[in-house]
Amino acid sequence: MDTAELIWMNGEFVAWEDAKVHVLTHTLHYGTGVFEGIRAYDTERGTAVFRHREHLDRLERSAGLYHMDVPYSIDELRSATHELITRNGLRSCYIRPIVFRGYGPMGLDPLDNPVDVSIACWEWGAYLGEQGQRDGIRAKISSWRRISPDSLIPHSKASGQYLNSVLAKIESKKAGYEEAILLDHRGNVCEGTGENVFVVRDGRITTPGHSSSILDGITRKSVMEIARDLGYDVAERDVARSELVLADEVFLTGTAAELVPVRELDDHVVGPPGEITRTIQRAFDDALHGRNDRYAEWLDIVQVPSRA
Predict the structure, then answer these.
(1) Which of the four pLDDT bands, split at 50, 70 and 90, describes residue 304?
(2) What separation in angstroms does the CA of 295 have from each of 51, 92, 195, 219, 259?
(3) How does 250-284 read in b/e, with b if 16+ C-beta sit within 10 Å?
(4) CA-to-CA separations, 127 to 37, 52, 123, 296, in angstroms, rounded
(5) Which helix (H) or strand (E) holds 182?
(6) What string of DSSP letters covers 104-117?
(7) What is the pLDDT of residues 87-98, one digit of tens each?
(8) Active site residue 140
């Protein structure tokens, strides 16, 4: 990966190679952390973080669901991120804030362990590749089910929960696919390993709702708003597995992946990226890069110009 110069850790800027934790850090053993994936884009108004406050709000809520009080306000984290981007001289980047239980008592009770916070940022291209964004990807239905809401908290973007996605990702990669789609505990479509799922059929757009154990994706909500503004009918409901292969178009959304068409699913050809997918993809890209004033409020302009 492309590294940067500095990482923000508990209020201080430290060299990338010195951003370290103790080997007995609680999160390392038990997964007791929450994180966010955020992107900043180079726009005509300067470097802009996409839906920054919404991401930080979700970070705070995720931490609260696992009984962690974040020791910094959202405004403090926002300012630290701006300064970090500036100090690293980045015009566009991926941003990874993480809140985690640090070094302290060992054992499953985490409440006496400190809550640490770090923010890193670096240059990172399209998660599923530029070719995937352009031509679409091959995906498979994973044999692993999405975590049940009776066992963990799907609405929290928690570190330990991503072992579920790691298993599905490895399975899909070993089988020769770029991505996996997980079903929920009831057998309905849930999400990709790091993306939400959209299905297009007969001009209507459908996406699994909260009852399907999805993470409430910020990119998902943005794409739904854009699609409705473009005049499309968008519905949230349970989606059967068979609807994926019967669809006219399928696409995935997420901060890292942005918007990626699915051209093939379980060796069934969905087809090249369709007209609706392409239309929404272009409109979303315009929103990300500040080319549409309608969504200008989604962009948090970094207050100090970067050195680049």
Answers:
(1) low
(2) 10, 18, 22, 13, 17
(3) bbbbbbbbbbbbbbbbeeeebeebbebbeebbebb
(4) 12, 19, 11, 24
(5) strand 179-183
(6) S--SS--TTS-EEE
(7) 999 999 999 999
(8) no
CA angle, residues 197, 199, 204, in degrees to nearest 5: 135
d(CA 179, CA 281): 19
* Residue 84 burial (10 A CB sphere; 0-12, 13-18, 19+): buried
Give the pair of three-digit tokens for residue 118. 């770090």
Task: Specify the pLDDT at position 308.
Answer: 47
Residue 295 within a domain: no
Q: Which of 102, 122, 142 is the last residue of a domain?
A: 122
Question: Is 301 in contact with 47 (CB distance < 8 Å)?
Answer: yes
> Which residue is associated with the tokens 């941003």?
95
| Nearest alpha carbon to residue 259 among 297, 285, 238, 224 | 285
41 lies in some domain:
yes
Residue 225 phi/psi, 5-degree rounding, is: -65, -45
Tell me whether strands 196-201 and 249-254 are parallel, antiparallel or unpaired. Answer: antiparallel
Confidence at 305, pLDDT banded by 50, 70, 90 = low
Average pLDDT over residues 237-255: 97
Collect contacts of 290-299 with beta carbons under 8 A, ≥24 apart. 290/41, 290/43, 290/44, 290/45, 290/48, 291/43, 294/229, 295/222, 295/226, 298/50, 298/51, 298/222, 299/41, 299/43, 299/45, 299/48, 299/49, 299/50
Query: CA end-to-end span of the chain, whole Å?
Result: 19
CB 78 within 8 A of CB 98: no
Whether 304 maps to a domain, the answer reads: no
| Residue-range definition of the domain harbouring residue 84 | 6-122
pTM: 0.95
> What's the rounded Cα separation, in Å, for the pair 7 and 118?
7
- On whether residue 84 sits in a domain, the answer given is yes
Q: Which of 140, 157, 173, 221 is catalytic?
A: 157
